[in-house]
Amino acid sequence: MAKNKPSAGFECSECGWQTVKWVGRCPECHSWGTVEEKGQKGAKTGASRSLVTPARTIADVDSSVAQFRPSGVGELDRVLGGGLVPGAVILMAGEPGVGKSTLLLQAAAEVARQHTSQPVLYLTGEESAAQVKKRAERIGAVAEGLYLAAETDLGQALGQIEETGAAQGGPQLTIMDSVQTLSSSEVDGAAGGVTQIREVTAAVIESAKRKNMTTILVGHVTKEGSIAGPRLLEHLVDVVCQFEGERHSRLRLLRAGKNRYGPTDDVGCFDLTEDGLVSLADPSGLFVSAMTERVPGTCITITLEGRRPLTAEVQALVAESPAAQPRRAVAGLDSPRVSMLLAVLQRRAKLATLMKSETYVATVGGVKITEPAADLAVALAVASATLEKPLPNRFLAFGEVGLAGEVRPIQGLSRRLQEAQRLGFTHAIVPRASEKTPSRGPQRAPEGMKVRQVGSLAEALTLVLGEK
Asked: Residue 467 pLDDT more than 70?
């Protein structure tokens, strides 16, 4: 007789893995303290006999209370889809020192200046109120309607929300820096743990929805770059934003990984200065060198960050090496993909000298290029440095290069060409396969630009450098 298998009585709240007995660490997602006992079969909650808010037809619902309210920071509003929505809970994550607190302090001051009917509350758990005040004076974020409080206890923080601007209906915007520093005495666990973060998030969301108050939570990130804490935190909030930037670069990028009120394919650009973060409506000039003389080994391309086109310059240097294994260094680009392009240049373009030469490839301004549309620009820059022939003036290229040496089609071709025309470029090389699209027919070159289509890397080298 076959024995009945025991039912799984424990389940991981992160990934849903089930087991018969309790374990401290989930073997599936490797998270600690997430395996909990499952509830009894059958629902315990019945229907309520009295409804607080009966259901209404969708035509009778007032949507004016959920309209966008500009924050005063243009790039932040761009990523959020138009501004701050009353009652929304936003999670802002990023590495330490990237500028999260500076950006939110500037936004809090701008909201307090523009909308004086209700105050703005800034709760800090990592710094004292005096430290935040000192930074606000440095970046010009001192406003009359901006309130500061240093709290690490969840009950005290909720009390601050209830007391601040009680006569005006409470704060219109509350910023909590950060969610990992708040803890509740009602539940067990240290601050930043799974249990504490769940309790803090649930209490904050309940307060934000009840008071129709926009709330921004600052979150930490792990070594891998993901948001610290349970994934339930990302599911509960309305918007998840990621603030990125290199430590040695002034450029900061803001992306939305989740947005219930707008698109998630846009990016905000900021310039980190001594006076705070400055919105960059046109950041293209940061990634192009200021040299006026044509130099071999440089090529300009246009990359898409979400829906925004950014002009970037790729530089390459090829030098003879006496070593048996020449050095190859890459900065700002995907190193395995650059190695693949060098191999394609050796075999398909017959540049055999690359095998015995040191090769250095980098981007200007610290920008990171990850999309394959920059392959053609990288290949042309390396070929130009190898042959010591500069590329034409006001010239750019974009296209994906395959292992057979073919140039493949890319997305957003018309948007890239329009940006190139706006910046004054006159010559461009694009993939021949992207000449036609199923819905719009032949692609037309912008006025004043000479656009040439190529089908292979060898054809592009012959057209631009005159090399067969």
From this structure: no
